Amino acid sequence: MSALGVMTTVAGSGSAPAVAAADCSGPAEPGSVVAEAPPEQATLGFKRVWPTTMGRGVTVAVIDTGVDGSHPQLRGAVGQGWDFVDSAPSGGTDCVSHGTAVASLIAARPVPGIGFVGVAPEASILPVRVVERTDSGLGEPAVLARAIRWAVDHGARVVNISLVTAEDTADLRAAVRYANEHDVLLVAAAGTRPSNTELPDPADGTDPPYYPAAYPGVLGVGAVDGAGARLASSPVASYVDIAAPGGPVLAATRVRGHGAWSGTSFATGLVSGVAALVRAAEPKLTAAEVERRLLATANRVAGGPGTAGYTHGMVDPYRAVTEKVVAGGVQVLPEMPPRTTDPALVRAEVRHRSMVRTATTIGIGAVIVVVILALTVVVNRRRATGAVRPAAATSSAGPTQSPDLPPLEESYFAVPKLTGR
């Protein structure tokens, strides 16, 4: 298995002391807490979907390095999974933060004062630990195959696979078919291009395949940067079905805090979160229909559909949840019928508007007359008692209004007061 992402240091508030991890050799340090909302959240705009769905009732399995459910934004989100490294129930040990970061992009809960949050913050995470480190080489295709089957058998409706293999095996193929037959959507990272490989010309060739993303029935995910351009590390291949932000993106680290991560692993987490939103909003859709919805509603990139490394384009959470898909495409609503005009109705409408204007004019006139009469009575009473105010001096700035005359809007909208005799 190959490493699909890296973490860099992120400046934030507070510092994180060394924290020991059970069953970890040289555990990674937690990141600093970052309060600001990351820009990729604004790019995806997934909060627009939350009035409709936040992913409640959908379980997303994360096949990775484990998920640390003690992180403040993952408490209550992570269930008991399975640890294939230690052959024991749990999956909650994460020595390098990779799986925790992916899970947080899917379902991190909101916390006051923290801008970062997962795409589907009411979804549940099922942790499935298959390696201790993404660069350890401990994982095998057979382990991935068993992990997929285990996740399917334990209630996952979406399975996020951010670890890949270059080996195409019968076991892994059979596990993918098993998930397809049980209506479970597989979302897999497209992998990482070798660092010594020049960018291929899309017309001349593509990168070698990575599995399980390259299998039919698996949604393969590529990564783009903040400007929407494909990451240099994201493969150029036909099995890259859809793209999402993947470099850098903010995500959780083990224990607490956040880090900046890059790679197709983290783009995959974002797409899995969108899949959870769709499955929660449209529970009757099959996994294949959810995949088709995501592809049909993706935002097109420069170059149009089929562009190498993007294929269908950038995932769009709002469109994926709100738009309907028919026969593999976005449903086009019919045009409004032509408006017909009835001359009799037009004449009746003109008469009605004329009557309304006349009644309004009469009403306003009556109010003005009442106001003038009331003011006249007040002035006459003051003159009779000698309580008339002296005229205000005229300034060089222009004439001033008489203090005896209240502003028009005040007198016009005032509620009449009843006085007893």
UniProtKB/TrEMBL annotation:
Start and end residues of each Peptidase S8/S53 domain: 55-301
Taxonomic superkingdom: Bacteria
Active site: 64, 98, 265
Pfam families named in the record: Peptidase_S8
Main localization of the protein described in the UniProt heading: membrane
Compositionally biased region (Polar residues): 393-403
Record field: transmembrane: 359-379
InterPro entries according to UniProt: Peptidase_S8/S53_dom (IPR000209), Peptidase_S8/S53_dom_sf (IPR036852), Peptidase_S8_Asp-AS (IPR023827), Peptidase_S8_His-AS (IPR022398), Peptidase_S8_subtilisin-like (IPR050131), Peptidase_S8_subtilisin-rel (IPR015500), T7SS_pept_S8A_mycosin (IPR023834)
Protein name: Type VII secretion-associated serine protease mycosin
Natural source organism: Micromonospora sonneratiae
Gene: mycP
